[in-house]
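Q: What structure does this chain adopt?
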Amino acid sequence: MPTRGDLLRERFRRFAARIVKFARSLPRDPTADGVARQLSRAGTGASANYHSACRGRSRAEFIARLGVALDEADEAERWLGVLKESGLASGAELEWLLDESAELRAILFASVTTARLNQRALQDEQDV
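A:
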């Protein structure tokens, strides 16, 4: 039976794949090309860093990688918003990606916050 971490890794992988497909569907012009590159980098980076966090060798590495994944998910969400507000893209796929990026960002934010609190509590126990 897959764990929550396994399911989230799969969700990030699907998100990254859909980001890449979406970026490839954007109009071919210098502005859209630049945004597409940034969006692809951020979306795939969020997925790769979450996967890496799950394989972290230490609690500190886990937290650091989660933080990078959070930054990348936030950036992907911002680029999707730019595409929508500029009129370079619209439609159901864009809306799905915006919703998914917001959910993944919220999950990562909660995970980073919890991991940091747990690390502090562990350090406090060791200091006693």
